[in-house]
Design goal:
Length: about 220
Amino acid sequence: MYIILLGAPGAGKGTLAKMIEGKFDIPHLSTGDILRDNVNRKTCVGNQAMEYMNNGKLVPDDIMIQIVKGRVLEEDCKAGFVLDGFPRTIKQAEALGLIFDELDIKIDAIFNLEASPKTIIERLSGRRTCGNCGAIYHINNIPSKVEGKCDKCGDRLYQRDDDKKDVVKERLIVYKAQTKKLISYYEKQGSLCEINANRKADEMFMEVCKSLGRVIKSG
Ligand code: AMP
């Protein structure tokens, strides 16, 4: 099953992707996680990406397309994946279309998570991430059992630098200017499913599962 999640930062793509990964046994491909891992390991890609990320800007398309091209060829992607954070520009969407054509992959579903500015700010300011396994929490909505510690691996939870106020502002500007266009891009292809993201993750997940159930039946 091949799924793409679209939506502004803070719309809940990461949380939803992890739920889809768990239920459908397909890997969660988060370009943000891949970049953060590269930054931590101080790889060449990480060093190139760091400044863009810290300023809430998009990492250049060519770098991102190469990353995704390489990742989808890995063994664990053979039966599908859920893409979170890519594409973010029309150029990336076009490149993804070509990659899918080459690999003879048909996208099963594209979900657009539509969240209000209030939801987005509330989610991003309360988001905490595990430094080790990447699990996502929220100080009010999805608290960990022990404050500041990951339920899954016990590692420390931290607030992403780019979830701080000034960077969030820039990320939302970039989203509106560059990424939002993808909604009409995919709408025109008739493959977009709108999800109201101003709800709890469980409720969004139920709607996604219903929709995927229909895809599985019709496939
Ligand atoms: P995310 O974890 O998806 O919110 O991504 C964090 C940051 O990584 C973004 O603000 C960008 O700086 C960078 N990034 C992630 N995915 C992409 C992408 N597809 N294109 C460009 N930059 C990206």
